Amino acid sequence: MRVDSEFTVGIHALLVYGFFDEDRITSDTVARSIGCNPVIVRKVFSKLSKAGLLRTGMGGARTVLAKPAEEISLKDVFLATEEEDAEAAFSMYPANLRCPIGKEIHGILSSRFRSAMDAMLEDLSRTTLADLIGELPPEKRRLPEELRARRCVLRPSAGPGIFWMPSFPSDVVRSPAVPYAKVGRIRFPC
Predict the structure, then answer these.
(1) pLDDT reading at 161 higher than 70
(2) What is the pLDDT of residues 69-105, one digit of tens each?
(3) pLDDT tens readout for residues 125-151
(4) Which domains does the chain have, with CATH numbers?
(5) How many angstroms separate the CA atoms of 122 and 169, rounded?
C-alpha cells in the first residue's frame, strides 16, 4: 500500500498550528520543523485549506486551524491529502488476462482492499488532532527559537548589489555544498 508523505506532512503541520497556537507560524517554520522544502508544505497547506482544516492567512494575517483540534480527525487529514480509492492506494499491477488467475485477481482482491481501506479510515477517524496534541509535552508549548521566523543572512556575490542566499534553511542542510539561489539586486543606502 502506498500512502504519500503528504499525509504525515499534513498531520505535522496541523500539530504545529495546534500546539504552538500562541506563536506566529509560517510555512517556512513548518518546513524547518519537518525538515523539508517549504514548497511541499505550501502544497499540503492548499489541500488542507480546501478541505476546511486550515485557514491560511494572506498578507499579515495568521494561519490558524479552521476548526477546533477536537473536530479534526486523522481521517480528515488523510482524505484531504490522499486518494480514498482502494485501487489507487494498493496499486494493482496489470494482469495477463489469458491466465485464469490473472483474469480474476483484480476482482478477487479489490473487495478485500476496499475492506482494508474502510477499516483504516475507521481507525483514523477515532484519533483527533487534540488526542495527538495531548501526547506532546505541555511544557514545550512555546515555539523553539531555532524554528522562529528569521531573516536570511545574505552573503555578497559577484558584483555590487547582487547577493545570494541558501535555497534551503541552513539548519536543515548542514553541508558546505549548500545550493544557492539568486535573490536579486538589493540597494543599500550609502
Answers:
(1) no
(2) 999 999 999 999 986 666 666 767 788 888 989 888 8
(3) 999 999 999 999 888 878 777 776 554
(4) 5-84+124-147 (1.10.10.10), 155-185 (no CATH)
(5) 38
Q: What is the pLDDT of residues 177-190, one digit of tens each?
A: 444 443 444 433 33
- Which residues lie closer than 8 Å to 44 by C-beta, 6 or more apart? 6, 9, 10, 13, 81
Are 169 and 151 in contact, with CB atoms under 8 Å apart?
no
Cell 494493482 found at: 92
Helix (H, G, I), strand (E, B) or coil at 24: coil
Q: What's the angle, vertex CA 22, arms to CA 62 and CA 30, rounded to 5? A: 60
SS3 128: strand
> What letters, b where the CB count within 10 A reaches 16 and e where it falls short, cover 14-34?
bbbbbbbeebebbbbbbbbbb
Residues 6+ apart with CB under 8 A from 49: 55, 56, 66
Phi, psi of 51, deg, nearest 5: -85, -5
**What residues contact 42, with CB distance under 8 A and at least 6 apart?**
27
Residue 68 phi, psi dihedral angles, 5° rounding? -60, 150
